[in-house]
Write a structure and sequence with these properties.
Blueprint (H helix, E strand, L loop, with lengths): L7 E4 L6 E3 L4 H12 L5 E2 L7 E3 L4 H12 L3 H9 L18 H18 L10 E5 L5 E3 L4 H9 L5 E9 H6 L8 H11 L3 E3 L3
Parallel strand pairs: 2-6, 3-7, 5-7
Antiparallel strand pairs: 1-7, 1-8, 2-4, 5-6
């Protein structure tokens, strides 16, 4: 399901190389303040420099192991145990969940669907969340971590991402005006930068 204000782009999942990390409470408060101030699609500050390589994120490690081992849960557990000691978002501790088998079954079903059907616009209630940094780079933000990880691992040729916000510097450098239809301005800027922009709805 999409909303009229969604900013949807079709992209190669390999072009998203980093994810946004809210490392501490102060960073989280700054992020929430950005979301509260209009327009919510334009963010200021250094959030786009607080990023982490996506292939070291625990969800990516998990999906890579799921694709590698399939239904062999013992092999999957052993692979995850080797990275469980890593700090923060690097450590894969999914194998410690009481519902591990059911969780992996859901991941395998998602992997099968993506492999057979590709990324379908109508198959999810939301889309992979991304942001645009000050330099125009795509940064993974909330929503769709598992889908993006699988799309990179399988790999898929393309996915649909929802640009949730952009850096104010990028917005200004593209001639953006805070007053007016900000989502429409951002769509035009993305087209100018060569992105395939989809119509929401």
């Amino acid at each position: 399901m999409t909303r009229s204000e969604d900013i949807l782009i079709r992209i190669d999942p390999g072009t998203i190389e980093s994810c946004f990390v809210r490392r501490d409470r102060l960073a989280k408060l700054r992020f929430l303040a950005n979301r509260a101030l209009p327009p919510r699609q334009v963010h200021v500050g250094g959030w786009d420099q607080r990023v982490f390589p996506i292939d070291r994120h625990r969800t990516y490690r998990l999906m890579a192991a799921v694709v590698q081992h399939g239904e062999d849960l013992d092999a999957l557990r052993k692979t995850l145990e080797r990275t469980a000691h890593l700090p923060g978002i690097q450590g894969t501790r999914h194998h410690l969940k009481p519902d591990f088998e059911a969780y992996i079954a859901e991941c395998l079903a998602l992997a099968r669907r993506l492999r057979e059907e590709g990324y379908r616009l109508d198959a999810a209630t939301d889309h992979i969340g991304v942001a645009i940094g000050r330099d125009g780079s795509l940064i993974k933000v909330a929503q769709g971590h598992h889908r993006l990880a699988l799309a990179r691992v399988l790999p898929l040729a393309s996915v649909v991402a929802n640009v949730q916000f952009v850096h104010k510097r990028w917005f200004r450098e593209h001639g953006g005006k805070i007053r007016g239809d900000v989502p429409a301005q951002i769509r035009a800027m993305l087209r100018e930068d060569g992105f395939e922009v989809l119509q929401p709805g």
